[in-house]
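note to self — DONT lose this again. spent like an hour looking for the file last time. sequence + predicted structure for the chain T wanted, 397 res
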Amino acid sequence: MRALLGVVLFLGTFVACQSGAQDAGFEKQYQDAQRALAEGKIDEAQHAYENLRDANPGIAEIHANLGLIYFEQRKFDAAIPELRRALQLKPGLSNSAALLAMSLSELGRYEEALPGLEKGFRSTDPQIKRMCGLQLERVYTGLKRDNKAVDVAMDMNRLYPDDPEVLYHNGKIFGNYAFLTMRKLVEVAPNSIWRHQALAEAAESQQSFATAIAEYHQVLRMNPDQPGIHYRLGRTLLARAHQSNSSDDLAEAEKEFEQELKLDPKNGNAAYEIGLSRQNAGQFAEAQQIFEQVLEFHPDFEEAQLGLASVLTSQGKPQEALPHLQKAIALNGENEVSWYRLSQVERSLGNSAEAQQALAKFKVLHDRKMNEEGAGRRFVSDQGEVTPQSLGADAPQ
């Protein structure tokens, strides 16, 4: 109700200005109805407006306000005739036209609702525009005009980037469109390389590693040089190795990353994974060389900056490690690993104040992460495109 109260008060002021033609009884009755509405006494306001409508059927704003009350009560069947009557009496009530379209949409009358919602989405009233946008997504989806629904969702993302309700509904729109696109892929090319790649990626995301590996191998049988497939296969093997502690999978993963580099020598992700393998094995000089090569082509690769800083530190070169940690933090100041490693490097360089500041920042980020995970607000099903650098065993918990 509060969201549209401004509409009600505007209409109320307008009618009050017209009341010179009405008697004092009407004026008091109307003020009582407006007061009840402003105080949130919705049932009392409804009753008062119904009496006003019955006694004064020719005043558009009374029908408009009563239609709004029914809309807020989700009595859409009752709202529609009141809003239609208001617009018959005064076609210029644009907010009532938008409410009528939204009421029709709520009842599944999408074709009738569409013109009004499209016009409402062009409104200069931000609340009307937002509500019409959400309903327009629903209508286009209901009418199977999925391209249009996506277009509106993109506009809504731009207009309301931090609105939780908008983000929720847009996520459903984009997810539905992705599903329909993949279903179309199955229909038009059931045996294509792209279908097998889609199946592999879906299985990988669901941690169905055996299925994903089989599908990636099918892609490679169809095209041994398909870009990115050896890398994705390596990542899947790596994920399975971490789950089952399989050294065989680790070895196979590294072979796939090496194969990807043969096809694409500038593939920073594949090179990084090999460098991380060397880092974890304590082969610091070799890992350093690989990370430096990655950063030559990809200087903004945060995890590679962290990896290089780590192996330099392990080789007793904290002064050389420092600028790489600073670069990683410049790229992403919310990574707890960067701040913890920075505290270690600053301490080894004798910079006590800087070390304490970095450690304090680490503790803030680490505590926040632990609280989010404990509250169930952090959902991590995939580590991203590369394996991230991690805190060492000596890090405070």
